[in-house]
Write a structure and sequence with these properties.
One of its GO terms (molecular function) is structural constituent of ribosome. By secondary structure, the chain is mostly beta strands. It has a domain at 21-86: SH3 type barrels (Roll), CATH 2.30.30. It has no helices and 10 strands.
């Protein structure tokens, strides 16, 4: 089976960073929060800790003597997650202060 072709063209750089707390706003995990583990810029997807778990059949290898079915985190599209702060979820904007760029929650003005 071949892989799906990656969409080419201009992509916006994601404003999320690793270890950000995000809330899922669409899909089967809607309403749940998790920490960002990985970001795939090319596919515009994120992997969240403990969310969107899928079962994967694992073969026995030299490192893992026993095979079986294990659960791994599957990626979620960037458009389906939103960063969350103490006061709720928010979009991210950048503020160019004298000491460089800072990430700020748009809704609360809180620095991330």
């Amino acid at each position: 089976m071949t892989r799906r072709p990656v969409v080419t063209g201009v992509r916006a750089r994601p404003r999320l960073r690793r270890d950000d707390q995000v809330v899922v706003i669409a899909g089967k995990e809607r309403g749940k929060t998790g920490r960002v583990l990985r970001i795939d810029i090319k596919r515009q997807q994120v992997v969240l800790e403990g969310l969107n778990l899928v079962k994967k059949a694992m073969r026995p290898t030299q490192q893992r003597q026993q095979g079986g079915i294990s659960e791994i985190e599957a990626p979620i599209h960037l458009s389906n997650v939103m960063v969350t702060t103490r006061d709720g979820r928010s979009r991210i904007r950048y503020d160019a202060a004298g000491d460089g760029k800072r990430r700020i929650a748009s809704r609360t003005g809180q620095e991330l």
